């Protein structure tokens, strides 16, 4: 996952060390040596993540973080504070300023990259939902200015811990503000999570009889709980477990012995984030229903795709991330309508769309372009990955027969696909035209194939 990271520290060797470590992992690194310069860089060219020192002259890291989080242009950039301060009160102050996490100097490489990857994954998903919300707002489908600010209301927490003392301590903190359910058995907890609507799950990683990390993994596996925030309670000696948990996808952690104020702040942060995500998803689904989906397939329509692609290309000009596009066309579809009628043709289109939806990633955007043509827009994706996805989709279409809704007719269907990738200073129309040229080449050369157009000559 490529990303731009801003490193801020007034000590030059500290900056150079972090810059070197991140560059080795193929991140693009920008640097600043004081708070004002960091803010200017963040406002003019927002990075994907900020590593921010706390103790700096002119303006300390807490103040920089507060300003970043108050400005709409930078409010959603993850901030990791890197500091020699290790007291719980310092962590609480940073979290209240809006920091997403803390790393203590000297920085452990495993912890650094685990947190960076985790926060970048979250930002990538949130950016996609925000971009779709902006697209819907531009189309006049929803009015985001009328949305209420996110606030904690009747938040539900599932606490999973088999230590009686720990359970008593935490429930006393939570009882006044949250609806808390306590479960000591991992299997029962999993059933509860899949059958109920929780805002946060708090899991102790030192369970005596079960494997809490296995449960964390399952939470991230199931569709019902994939986006549920996970806050873990970790002993100082269990850092290996914590690193593994961060790789799996836990959202945050509190070290034992538990500082009550830190627990309160981290809990509130995770619930606010969850409710904000829920609002974005609600707006996204509502806008799709109103104006931007194709009524037959449920995929995005051409109007939405074009607007969304333009927005992606504008963003790509700033962060230099490629946008790939593929156009798919059902081979000999006219014969289906002429032979079996338009009802069967509609069934084929619906089945085709369903296979596209299953075959692409969550961040990709699939749409019905018109008739039997479909488009998939793939952000932050180079041509080699896009062509691989295209070939997989082509095989999925060809390898399994299509049936009509009555189960009376079975048809072998194939498709042709044209693929291309964005170039600098390019608009959506030009990019789509180049993909269409590749599609035309695929149909001319015999159909049921993928043709790649790198921007020069289709091959």
From TrEMBL:
The modification 4-aspartylphosphate is found at residue 53. InterPro entries: CheY-like_superfamily, Diguanylate_Cyclase, GGDEF_dom, Nucleotide_cyclase, Rev_trsase/Diguanyl_cyclase, Sig_transdc_resp-reg_receiver. It catalyses: 2 GTP = 3',3'-c-di-GMP + 2 diphosphate. Its EC number is 2.7.7.65. It is an enzyme of class 2 (transferase). Gene3D superfamilies: 3.30.70.270, 3.40.50.2300. Keywords: Phosphoprotein. PANTHER family: DIGUANYLATE CYCLASE DGCM-RELATED, REGULATORY COMPONENTS OF SENSORY TRANSDUCTION SYSTEM. This is diguanylate cyclase. It comes from Sneathiella marina.
